[in-house]
Amino acid sequence: MDFFWPIKILAETITVKILPLPAGSFLAEVVSYFIYDVIKIYLLLLIIIFIVSLIRSFLPPEKIRLVLVRKNPYWGNILAALFGIVTPFCTCSAIPLFLGFLQAGIPLGVTFSFLVASPMINEVALVMLLGLFGWRVAAIYILSGLIIAIFSGIIIGKLKMENLLADFTLGKILQPQAALAPIKFSDRLAYAKDYTFGIFKKVWFFVLLGVGVGAWIHGYVPADFLTRFAGADKWYAVPLAVIIGIPLYANAAGIIPLVSALTEKGVALGTTLAFMMAVTGLSLPEFLILKKIMKLKLILIFAGIVGAGIIFTGYLFNLIIF
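Below the sequence we write its predicted structure tokens.
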């Protein structure tokens, strides 16, 4: 059952009756596609980010640190990756918390599981994949991202590379914190509302831009054009997509509509998702920030392990879906 059929009818009505554009024309199809996706994604963003941010209000950073410190390493990797899903979705905002974890005495591998999961698996990406592809693809995306984050952290932890961190990142000891006054539920609701609209203000334009480009590709790019270069049968497509994605800087709001449009034109889903994961999880700006707190060798090892995981996931998606 398509839960978004009222939005589809609204988009078609605006396109044909209000604008009006000739029914069945390429332009009408592009405009209807654009209106439908923009409204659907905006609604999903507002609803789901509000719910996620409300849950987040019960997980302050200090409480997260205490839980991770008390767990054995493998459980720590799993929990850190799960926490990454409900923490700030931008790499730039995840790195300060990553640094705080290190200074709290949390093992290096555990903190890397968080650092990988936080930008790669975020509420915006989940909302948009759910709306554009359905629950199956969204579930595989979350599961694959968690596996990459958990095992990347475990591998880095086994390599014992603390000597490749800057001196100021380690050495502090987590001290017991004084009990905080209970937070009223009304305050949590206010926080969730403010956070939701704060995120929406940051991404609404990227949604508009991404859906616009996606709508153009949907309506005007020939169906077989991209398939010839990036179909599921092209062995080089997935690693090439990851390499292309690394130097780019964008968030899921701008990338996922392109993933949808490219997939509709025949580009293998695993290839486009590998591209998205590389953009959000292995971006060049992230490496430039990390250079301040770790040596180049550790950054390259981190990028290599995560990149290999993304490539494997891309091939796995192509194998499962196609």
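The two ends are 23 Å apart (CA to CA).
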